[in-house]
Amino acid sequence: MGVLLVALPLLGLVVRTPWTRIAEVLTNETTLTALRLSLVVATSAAAISLVTGFPLAWALARGSFRGKTLVRALVVLPLVMPPVVAGVGLLAAFGRRGLVGSWLHDWFGVQLTFTTAAAVLAATFVSLPLAVLALEAGFRGLDERLEDAASTLGASRWYVLRRVTLPLMAPQIAAAAVLSWARALGEFGATITFAGNLQGRTQTLPLAVFEKLQTDQAAAFAISMLLIAIAAAVIFALRGRFLR
Amino acid sequence: MTLAVDVIARRGGFVVRAAFEAAGGETVALLGPNGSGKSTLVATIAGLLIPTDGTIALDGTVLDAPTGVHAPPERRSIGVVFQDLLLFPHLSAEENVAFPLRARGMDRAEAHERARRLLERLGIAERAEARPVDLSGGEAQRVALARALVGEPAMLLLDEPLSALDVGARVRVRELVREELARFPGVRILVTHDPVEASTLADRLILLEDGVVTQIGSPEQIRDAPRSRYAADLVGVNAFHGGLDRIEDGAGRLSTDEGDVVVGWPEGFEGEEAIGLLRPADITLSLEPPAGSARNVLEGRVTSVAVEGGRARVRIASAPPLVAEVTLGSVERLGLRDGVTVWASFKAVEVRVLRP
C-alpha cells in the first residue's frame, strides 16, 4: 500500500511525459535558464549551508552552553515548517519593509526581494538544517581524542582541522553537501513567496514546473522527470546512507 | 632536563593531587590501580587538561601555573603514546609518523625520510604503507612509539604501552620499549597498572592511589618498605595500617579497621599511627587452634589458593584478612581449598612496624 502510494505518481509521470519531445522541452530557452539558475542557487545554498553549518554543528555536538536545546530546536524548525511560512518569515526579515531589509535598503540601497540572492537565501533557509544534522552526526562519530593526540604531536588547531577533523569527517561532509544541495534544488514555497517567480532571476526548475503546468503541461512533466532523475542520482550517491 | 609536577587536577568530580620530579635519563613509572587517577594525570601533563591548581615545569619552562599560565599541548615538547594509541585511521603508518614533523612545517620529503628511518629502527619499515586498521597490535604499538619519538621531544610519556597487547607481543614490545627508553635522553614517564612492567622498565616508582601519591622510591625501596596496603599487595606482603597502642612492655596492639594485630613494640615509637608488614611465609596455618607461643592467632575461611612455583599463596578472610605462603605439601596435608576454615598464627616480632 505504502509502496503503491509512492510508485503511482512516479508511474503517472513516466506515462504522461512527452518522451518524443523531451529533448526539445528540456533544451528550450526557459528550461535551460531555469536549470542554470537552479544549479547556481542550489550550489550556493549548499555551500553557505556547509560553511555556516559547520561551526553550528560543532557547537551543538561538542559545546555545552545555555540554551543549546533552544538553538537545536531553532535549527531543526525549518524542516517541519511549511515552506510558504518560511518565505513569509524571510519577507518579514529581509523584505523592503522587513526587520533587516528596511535597514539594508535605507543604508546601502540593497533590496533582496526578487533577486537571485533572495532565491539563494530562501534555499539556504530550508537546506541548512539538513547540513547541520549531517555534520553534527559527523562530529559525534569522530573520536575527539584523535584531535587531542594530534595537538600533543605539535599540530596547531588549524592543522588539526585540516589534517585530522576534515578528512575524518569527509563522508558526513559529503552527505551534508548532497542532502542540502538536493533540498535547495527542490525548494519552491519559500522561494516563490520571498523571491518571486522571475525568469532568469528567481525562476528555478520547480517554479518553472509550476508555471508550465498552467500553460504547457507536457513541458511540466518533462521538467519533473529531469528533477526525478537528479533525485535518483542523489540517492545513488548516498546509497551507503539510504540503501543498506 | 627535569619535569617538576605539583598539581591538583580535577576531571568529572575526581580529584588528583600529585607532586613529584623526574630527571632526564631516568625512567619513572607512575604505578597505580585502575581508577587511581593515572589518566587524569597524563592528560594534565600533556596539556589536555588544565590543572585547578599548581604548577608543571619542564626543563625550567613553566607549562602550567596558578597565575593563568597554560601552554597548550602543541607547545609542549612531550611525546605521548596513548593507552589506545590513537593512530590516525586515514593515514598510513609512515604518514602517521611523519605527522608531527609535517605539523611543525618540515617539508614532505624530509619528514617522510625521517619517518621511514625510524620505522626501520623499530623493525616495521615493510609496513610503512599500511593503514592502522591493517596493523597487528605490536605493529601499531611501534608506529605509535615512532610517532611520539620522531619530533625529538624533551620528554616521553607512555600511557600503558603494553596493556593492549597479547602475551606474546607484549614480551617483544616490552624489550623494544626498554631499548627505546634507554636511548631516549630526556625525561621518561611510564604510566602503568602492571607492577611487573613498572619494576622491569623503571628506575623509580611513583605509587598513585585514589588520586594521591602514596609512595615514591626505587623498586627495591618499595619492596623493602611498602607504605600502603596497595604497595604491600604489589610486593606480596601483608600490611596492617592503624593506630598503635602499648599493651605491655615490649608489645603493642595495632588496631586496623578490619581487626587487631599484636606486634613487638618498635624502638622510638610512642602511641601513634603505624604500618605493620608481615611476610606471608611467616604465617603458620593449621586446622585446629595452635598450641604454640604465637601471640597472633586468627581464624578465617580460605578464599583462594594460588599455586606459584613450588609454593601456594592462600588468602584467608580473617580479621584482618591475610595472605599466607605455604608449601604444596601443606596444602595437601591440610586439605586447603576455598571455604575451609583455618587458624593462622604468627609471632608478634615477625611484624615489622614502620611509620606510614
Report on the structure:
The complex is a heterodimer of chains A (244) and B (356). Chain A has 244 residues and is an all-alpha fold. Chain A has one domain: Orthogonal Bundle (MetI-like fold). Chain A is built from 14 helices and no strands. The longest helix of chain A has 34 residues, at 29-62. Chain A is globular. Chain A starts with a helix and ends with a helix. The mean pLDDT of chain A is 90. In chain B, helix 2 (93-103) crosses helix 3, helix 2 (93-103) packs parallel to helix 4 (137-149) and helix 4 (137-149) packs parallel to helix 5. The mean pLDDT of chain B is 91. Chain B has 356 residues and is an alpha+beta fold. Chain B has a six-stranded mixed β-sheet, sandwiched between helices. Chain B has helices at residues 38-46, 93-103, 108-121, 137-149, 167-183, 195-201, 219-224, 229-235, 328-334; strands at 2-11, 14-23, 27-31, 53-58, 61-65, 69-70, 78-81, 155-159, 187-192, 204-209, 212-217, 238-248, 251-256, 259-264, 272-278, 284-286, 296-308, 311-317, 322-327, 341-346, 352-354. The longest helix of chain B has 17 residues, at 167-183. Chain B folds into two domains: 2-224, 3-Layer(aba) Sandwich (Rossmann fold), CATH 3.40.50; 236-354, Beta Barrel (OB fold (Dihydrolipoamide Acetyltransferase, E2P)), CATH 2.40.50. Chains A and B meet through helix 8 and helix 9 of A and strand 7 and helix 2 of B.
Furnish the topology, listing elements before pairings.
The complex is a heterodimer of chains A (244) and B (356).
Chain A: H1 2-16, H2 22-27, H3 29-62, H4 68-80, H5 83-94, H6 101-108, H7 116-141, H8 144-152, H9 157-168, H10 170-186, H11 189-194, H12 205-215, H13 217-237, H14 239-242
Chain B: E1 2-11, E2 14-23, E3 27-31, H1 38-46, E4 53-58, E5 61-65, E6 69-70, E7 78-81, H2 93-103, H3 108-121, H4 137-149, E8 155-159, H5 167-183, E9 187-192, H6 195-201, E10 204-209, E11 212-217, H7 219-224, H8 229-235, E12 238-248, E13 251-256, E14 259-264, E15 272-278, E16 284-286, E17 296-308, E18 311-317, E19 322-327, H9 328-334, E20 341-346, E21 352-354
Parallel strand pairs in B: 3-9, 3-10, 7-8, 8-9
Antiparallel strand pairs in B: 1-2, 1-4, 4-5, 5-6, 10-11, 12-13, 12-15, 13-14, 15-21, 16-20, 17-18, 17-20, 18-19
